[in-house]
Design brief:
The complex is a heterotrimer of chains A (358), B (281) and C (293).
Chain A: E1 4-13, E2 17-27, E3 32-36, H1 43-51, E4 58-63, E5 66-67, E6 78-81, H2 93-103, H3 108-122, H4 137-149, E7 155-159, H5 167-184, E8 187-192, H6 195-201, E9 204-209, E10 212-217, H7 219-224, H8 229-234, E11 241-249, E12 252-255, E13 258-261, E14 274-279, E15 284-286, E16 293-303, E17 307-314, E18 317-324, E19 334-339, E20 345-347
Parallel strand pairs in A: 3-8, 3-9, 6-7, 7-8
Antiparallel strand pairs in A: 1-2, 1-4, 4-5, 9-10, 11-12, 11-14, 12-13, 14-20, 15-19, 16-17, 16-19, 17-18
Helix pairs in contact in A: 2-3, 2-4, 3-4
Chain B: H1 6-33, H2 38-42, H3 54-63, H4 73-104, H5 110-119, H6 129-138, H7 145-153, H8 157-168, H9 171-179, H10 184-195, H11 197-212, H12 216-221, H13 230-238, H14 247-267, H15 269-279
Helix pairs in contact in B: 1-14, 3-14, 4-7, 4-8, 4-11, 11-15, 13-14, 14-15
Chain C: H1 11-38, E1 41-43, E2 50-52, H2 56-63, H3 65-97, H4 103-111, H5 118-128, H6 137-142, H7 153-182, H8 185-193, H9 198-227, H10 230-236, H11 248-258, H12 262-289
Antiparallel strand pairs in C: 1-2
Helix pairs in contact in C: 1-12, 2-12, 3-7, 3-9, 5-7, 5-10, 7-9, 8-9, 9-12, 11-12
Classes of the chains: A alpha+beta (358), B mainly alpha (281), C mainly alpha (293).
C-alpha cells in the first residue's frame, strides 16, 4: 500500500482554461481523503489525473515513491468507482468484477477466490450471475465497489459514487464505505460536493474552490477553524452567518452598533476598519449574557422536527438561528442572542482570509 | 387515449383491413399464378383460388429456369444471397471499424476522414453508374462477386449509425476498461462489440434487403447469365415477346425473389424497424 | 459531439479506417470525379481522342427536347408518388395509432412491401394490370376504357405510379406511426379539453406536430422516385411507350447503353448529383430548424 503525493499539479485545457491551478497535497498511506467543493472547482479533474484518465499539464503525481505522470491507468495500481458505476452492461456481476483480473492474467482459481470474497464482504453473493440492469441502484453501487476491491489496489479512487442514490440509501452506503475502508486499510481518495459526506467520511478533508485548495485538515479542524470565508460558508448546514462589522479594539468587534467579545482575533487590527463576523446558526443562543449579545428581527420559522430555524435579520444582514424545538416560542418576533466569544470567526473583507491568532 | 368511440374504432379496422387487402392483393395474385400452367394464365381467366401446378412450377423454376432464359432460378438465388450477404457483412465490417476509429481515437485528419465518408451519404450509386462501371471493368471485376458487392458498400450509412450508437455509450466504460487493463483491441472485442450486437443486427437486416433488391448495378456488370441475380432474372423472363412469356415461371420466380427479404422483415420486425428508423436519422 | 475519453495512438485508427477509405475513394470519389471531368470532354466517333469542350455537353443536353420531357416526366412521377404514398400512409398510420386490438398484426401486414424489390413490385403490378391477361384489366375494360399500358403513355404512367406508391407506403407508414407515437398524449388531451373534435384535433394539433416527419419523408420520397424506381420502370415500361415514361435516371442508363456520347451521359450524371445534393442540403437545413419545435 502507498500514499499519494501531489506536487503543484496543474490542468490546463485547450483554450487556456486552467481547471487545476497548482495543487500540492500529501495523502498518507491508509488514510481516507475527501476532496470537497462546488461543481467546477477542479476536484474531479484532480482525481482523474491521479487515475491517469486526464493528462497532467504540470507538476507531479506520485503513488508511493513512483512518479506516475506517464504511467497508463492500468499500471498505476489504482481502482476507481465512478459516479454512474460504469459497469459493463453485457457482463454478469461476476464477470464485471473478474474482468480486470483476467486482463492481468491472474490465475482462474485466484480470480474466483477474490471475487467470491469481495461478494461476501459486500453481500452481493446472490447476484453474481445477474446482469447489471437486473440490479437496484444500491446493488450496482456494491458491484462497482466489488470491482475495485478484488483488484487489491494501492489506492481507491471514488468519483461522487453516491450521488445517483436516493437519500436513505446514500446514508447507508456512506457508512458501509467507511467501514470497508477501515477494514481494508487502503488509501482512498473520494470526491464529493456533499459536505455531509465529506465530513463523515474523511480522515483528511480537502476543501477546493476555483481549481485551488482552500483548506486541508481533519473534519473537526475545518469545521471549528475555517481558514477562509468560502470554507466557513461551504462546510456546515445551514451555512455560517456572515455579518458586516468593524474592529473596536483587541478582542472586540461591533456589529450594527452592538459590541461582541472575540477570543480568536489577530493582534494589531486597526480600530474602525471593516471586518466580517461569522457565526454558525447552531453556535448562538437566545438570551442575554450581558457583555456580548446581538438583537435579531425574526421573519419566519422553519420546522425541522428536532430543531427549528429562525430566519431574520441582524444589523440589516440575513441571519439564521438554529434552536432545539420548544426552546423558543414559534411566534417569537424579536430575539436577543448570546454570543460565546469562542464561537466568533473573523474574516478579512478583501482577502476573505481568517483573521485569527497566528 | 381521448374518446375511444365505437364508430371510430370500426372505421380504423375498416381502413386498416382495406389497406392490408390492397397491399396484399398483387402478391396474392402472384402466388396464385405460381400454381397454374402457362395456358391457364394466358387466356386471361386465371381463377383466384390455387391451382395444382405449384409443385411442378417451383421444381422446374428452381432447377431449370424458363424456356427462353434457361438459367435455374436456384442458382440466381444463390447469387443474390452471396451479393446480399456480401454487402451486409462487408458494410458492417468496414463501417464498425471506421466508426471505432473516428469516435474513440484522436488522429491527424480525423475530421477530414469523417467528412470524406459522410459526403457519400448524398450520392446513390445510380448517379455515377457508368464511371463506376468503367472502373470495375478496368479492375477486371465484371461478372465477379467482388464487382457486385464493392461499389455498393461504399457509403456512409453504416459508419454514421455506429458512430451515433458509440456516442451513446458512456465515456466511463472506456475509462473503466483502461483501469481494468484493457487496451484498444480488448475494449473493442470485450465491450464495444457485445454492446453493438443489436445495432449490427439491425444494420444487417436493412443491408440484406438493400443488397438482395439491387437491380441497376447487377444489370450492368453481369454479362454471363450464370452470374445473374434473381431480381434481374425475372426481368429477362418477361421481356421476350409477350405471347411467349411463361407467366407461371415468371410469377414463381417473383414469389421466390420476394421470399427471403419478406421473411426477414416479418421475423426480425423489431430489428428491421430499428435499422430503418436509425439509418435515416 | 465529442468523446471525453480517447484511446491514445494514431497508427491503429488509420489502419482501422483504411478499408472504408480505400473503397470510398476507388468506388465513389474516383467515378464521381470521372463523371465531372468527362462532362467537359467530347470523344471522337471512335473513342480514340477526346478534347475539352467546356459546357458544350450541358448546352447540347438542354437543346434536346427529350431531356425536357424526361424532366417533366420525373417531376410528374415524383409528385404523384410522393403525394399518394404520403397520403395513404398517413391515413393508415393515424388509424393504426388508435389503440385497437390487433394493431401489431396490422402493422406487420402493412410494412412488408418494403422488402419487395422495386423491379419485382413492377412485375406484380404489370401482371395484375396486363392488357390481355391481367386480373384487374377486365373490369377496367368492362367500363369502356381501352386499357393498354404498353401503348398508352397515360396508362403506363398510371401503372408506374401505382406500383411505386404501393412499394413506398410501408416506409412512410412506419415513419408516420413513429412520429404519431412521439406526440405526447397530454397535448392531444389538452386539445380535447379545449373542445376540439377528432378531425379538428388532427388538422390543428397532430398534423402540424408531424410536419418535421412529413417534410423529411417528402424529401426521402422524391429521392426514392428519382433512383429506386429505376427497377420498376425498367420492368414495367422500359421507358416507353416511345420514351414517354423515361425519367432522368432512366435516361442516363438508356443513353449510356446505346453507347456513344460519354460526355453527354456524364453531364446528365452531374446534373443529377447537383439535384440530389440540393435536396439533401434543403433537408438538413430544414430539419435543423426543427419545424414546429
Amino acid at each position: 500500500m502507498a500514499g499519494v503525493t501531489l506536487d503543484t499539479v496543474r490542468k490546463i485545457y485547450a483554450g487556456n482554461v486552467e481547471a487545476v491551478k497548482g495543487v500540492s497535497l500529501g495523502i498518507e498511506d491508509g488514510s481516507f481523503c475527501v476532496l470537497v467543493g462546488p461543481s467546477g472547482c477542479g476536484k474531479s479533474t484532480l482525481l482523474r489525473m491521479i487515475a491517469g484518465l486526464e493528462t497532467i499539464s504540470g507538476g507531479e503525481v506520485k503513488i508511493g515513491d513512483r512518479v506516475v505522470n506517464q504511467v497508463e491507468p492500468a499500471d498505476r495500481d489504482i481502482a476507481m468507482v465512478f459516479q454512474n458505476y460504469a459497469l459493463y452492461p453485457h457482463m454478469s456481476v461476476y464477470d464485471n468484477m473478474a474482468y480486470g483480473l483476467k486482463n492481468r492474467k491472474t490465475p482462474k482459481d485466484e480470480i474466483d477466490k477474490r471475487v467470491k470474497e469481495a461478494a461476501r464482504i459486500l453481500a452481493i453473493e446472490p447476484f453474481l450471475a445477474r446482469k447489471p440492469r437486473q440490479l437496484s441502484g444500491g446493488q450496482r453501487q456494491r458491484v462497482a465497489m466489488g470491482r475495485a476491491i478484488v483488484r487489491k489496489p494501492q489506492v481507491f479512487l471514488f468519483d461522487e459514487p453516491l450521488s445517483n442514490l436516493d437519500a436513505k440509501l446514500r446514508v447507508q452506503m456512506r457508512v458501509e464505505i467507511k467501514r470497508l475502508q477501515r477494514a481494508l486499510g487502503v488509501t482512498s481518495i473520494y470526491v464529493t460536493h456533499d459536505q455531509v459526506e465529506a465530513m463523515t467520511l474523511s480522515d483528511k478533508l480537502v476543501v477546493m474552490s476555483g481549481g485551488q485548495i482552500e483548506q486541508v485538515g481533519t473534519p473537526a479542524e475545518v469545521y471549528r477553524r475555517p481558514e477562509t470565508r468560502f470554507v466557513a460558508t461551504f462546510i456546515g448546514s445551514p451555512p455560517m452567518n456572515i455579518l458586516p462589522g468593524t474592529v473596536e479594539g483587541p478582542g472586540r468587534v461591533s456589529v450594527g452598533g452592538q459590541s461582541i467579545a472575540v477570543t480568536d482575533m489577530r493582534d494589531g487590527l486597526t480600530p474602525g476598519s471593516a471586518i466580517e463576523v461569522g457565526l454558525r446558526p447552531e453556535d448562538v443562543q437566545a438570551g442575554s449574557t450581558g457583555t456580548s449579545s446581538l438583537s435579531m428581527d425574526v421573519d419566519f420559522v422553519e420546522e425541522l422536527g428536532a430543531t427549528q430555524l429562525f430566519h431574520g435579520k441582524v444589523a440589516g444582514a440575513e441571519f439564521i438561528v438554529q434552536a432545539s424545538t420548544g426552546q423558543l416560542a414559534a411566534d417569537t418576533r424579536k430575539l436577543t442572542l448570546a454570543v460565546d466569544p469562542g464561537n466568533v470567526h473573523l474574516f478579512d473583507p478583501q482577502t476573505t482570509k481568517r483573521l485569527g491568532r497566528a | 387515449m381521448v374518446e375511444n368511440r365505437p364508430f371510430a374504432q370500426f372505421m380504423a379496422y375498416l381502413t386498416l383491413a382495406l389497406g392490408v387487402v390492397i397491399v396484399a392483393f398483387p402478391v396474392y395474385l402472384a402466388v396464385m399464378a405460381s400454381t397454374f400452367d402457362t395456358a391457364t394464365i394466358i387466356n386471361g381467366n386465371m381463377p383466384l383460388v390455387p391451382g395444382d401446378q405449384a409443385g411442378e412450377n417451383y421444381t422446374r423454376t428452381l432447377l431449370y429456369g424458363g424456356m427462353h432464359a434457361r438459367q435455374p432460378v436456384g442458382g440466381m438465388m444463390l447469387n443474390s444471397m452471396i451479393m446480399a450477404l456480401g454487402i451486409a457483412i462487408g458494410k458492417i465490417l468496414i463501417s464498425i471499424l471506421s466508426a471505432f476509429a473516428v469516435v474513440y481515437f484522436k488522429f491527424p485528419f480525423r475530421k477530414t476522414a469523417f467528412w470524406i465518408i459522410f459526403i457519400t451519404l448524398m450520392l446513390p450509386v445510380e448517379v455515377r453508374i457508368y464511371p463506376t462501371y468503367k472502373i470495375v471493368a478496368d479492375l477486371g471485376l465484371l461478372d465477379t462477386y467482388t464487382g457486385l458487392v464493392m461499389p455498393l458498400i461504399a457509403s456512409a450509412t453504416g459508419t454514421l449509425l455506429f458512430r451515433q450508437f458509440f456516442m451513446t455509450i458512456p465515456d466511463e466504460l472506456l475509462e473503466a476498461s483502461k483501469i481494468d487493463g484493457a487496451g484498444a483491441f480488448r475494449f473493442f472485442k470485450d465491450t464495444l462489440l457485445p454492446l453493438s450486437m443489436t445495432t449490427i443486427a439491425a444494420l444487417f437486416v436493412i443491408q440484406f434487403i438493400y443488397g438482395w433488391n439491387q437491380y441497376l448495378w447487377p444489370l450492368l456488370i453481369t454479362t454471363k447469365s450464370s452470374m445473374q441475380t434473381i431480381v434481374i432474372g425475372i426481368k429477362m423472363m418477361i421481356t421476350t415477346t409477350d405471347a411467349l412469356t411463361e407467366w407461371n415461371v415468371a410469377m414463381t420466380t417473383a414469389v421466390l425473389a420476394m421470399l427471403p427479404p419478406v421473411l426477414v422483415v416479418i421475423f426480425m420486425q423489431r430489428l428491421f424497424v430499428k435499422g430503418l428508423v436509425e439509418t435515416e436519422k | 459531439m465529442e468523446k471525453r475519453a480517447h484511446i491514445s495512438g494514431w497508427t491503429l485508427p488509420l489502419l482501422l479506417i483504411l478499408p472504408q477509405m480505400a473503397i470510398t475513394v476507388i468506388f465513389f470519389y474516383w467515378p464521381a470525379s470521372q463523371a465531372i471531368w468527362q462532362s467537359f470532354l467530347r470523344e471522337d466517333a471512335f473513342g480514340l481522342a477526346s478534347e475539352f469542350v467546356g459546357f458544350e455537353n450541358y448546352v447540347s443536353l438542354f437543346e434536346q427536347p427529350e431531356y425536357y420531357r424526361a424532366m417533366v416526366t420525373t417531376a410528374i412521377f415524383s409528385s404523384l408518388v410522393a403525394f399518394f404514398s404520403l397520403a395513404c400512409a398517413l391515413l393508415l398510420a393515424t388509424q393504426a395509432d388508435k389503440n385497437i386490438r390487433g394493431g401489431q398484426a396490422f402493422k406487420t401486414f402493412l410494412i412488408w412491401p418494403y422488402a419487395v424489390a422495386p423491379a419485382i413490385a413492377g412485375v406484380l403490378w404489370l401482371f395484375m394490370f396486363h392488357p390481355t391477361l391481367g386480373t384487374l384489366s377486365k373490369p377496367i375494360k368492362a367500363i369502356g376504357i381501352d386499357w393498354n399500358p404498353m401503348l398508352n403513355a397515360n396508362h403506363a404512367m398510371t401503372l408506374l405510379v401505382l406500383s411505386a406508391t404501393w412499394k413506398q407506403i410501408s416506409y412512410n407508414f412506419l415513419f408516420f406511426l413513429a412520429g404519431l407515437q412521439a406526440i405526447p398524449k397530454s397535448v392531444i388531451e389538452a386539445a380535447a379539453i379545449d373542445g376540439a373534435g377528432p378531425l379538428r384535433r388532427f388538422w390543428t394539433v397532430i398534423f402540424p406536430l408531424l410536419s418535421p416527419t412529413t417534410f423529411f419523408l417528402l424529401v426521402v420520397n422524391i429521392v426514392y422516385v428519382f433512383f429506386d424506381t429505376f427497377g420498376i420502370i425498367d420492368a414495367v415500361t422500359g421507358g416507353g411507350p416511345a420514351g414517354q415514361t423515361t425519367t432522368l435516371v432512366y435516361k442516363v442508363y438508356a443513353d449510356g447503353r446505346l453507347g456513344g456520347d460519354l460526355g453527354g451521359s456524364a453531364a446528365q450524371s452531374v446534373i443529377l448529383m447537383i439535384i440530389v445534393i440540393a435536396l439533401t442540403a434543403i433537408q438538413f437545413r430544414y430539419v435543423e430548424r426543427k419545424v414546429q419545435y
